[in-house]
């Protein structure tokens, strides 16, 4: 049956800004990048170290989608990290606001949230 998550697709409002955020700030590697002229759209496949991917899309005049932590639909995208404090420091050094660290009462694991350039909720979950 299911073996894991292959990719998550994100439609961004400003392609160069989001590409820089995910590659330069978060360190994801570009696997492939294409401009699809007929759709006036970029598609960029980004790799995480565990083999999972983010597909970053741009679409002209894409509508906004409500995205709040308690809205129906996808709640957030969580990234595994070894050292939460190091990643938080890196984000803060790059002017990214990070919520206070919380502890999961069931696993005792530390985690926090921040947002991408389109205000999409992202989580850091310490292993």
TrEMBL record:
Domain of life: Bacteria
Record flagged with keyword Metal-binding: yes
Keywords, alphabetical: Metal-binding
Gene Ontology MF term list: metal ion binding
PROSITE patterns xref list: VOC
SUPFAM superfamilies for the chain: Glyoxalase/Bleomycin resistance protein/Dihydroxybiphenyl dioxygenase
Record Gene3D superfamilies: 2,3-Dihydroxybiphenyl 1,2-Dioxygenase, domain 1 (3.10.180.10)
Domain VOC: 4-127
Protein name, as recorded: VOC family protein
Species this protein is from: Salinimonas iocasae
């Amino acid at each position: 049956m299911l073996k894991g998550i292959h990719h998550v697709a994100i439609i961004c409002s400003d392609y160069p800004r989001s590409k820089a955020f995910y590659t330069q700030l978060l360190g994801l590697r570009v696997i492939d990048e294409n401009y699809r002229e007929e759709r006036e759209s970029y598609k960029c496949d980004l790799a995480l170290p565990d083999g999972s991917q983010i597909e970053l899309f741009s679409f002209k005049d894409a509508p906004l989608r409500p995205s709040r932590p308690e809205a129906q639909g996808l709640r957030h995208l969580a990234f595994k990290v070894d050292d939460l404090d190091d990643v938080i420091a890196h984000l803060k050094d790059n002017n990214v606001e990070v919520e206070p660290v919380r502890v999961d009462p069931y696993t005792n694991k530390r985690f926090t949230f921040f947002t991408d350039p389109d205000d999409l909720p992202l989580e850091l979950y310490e292993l």
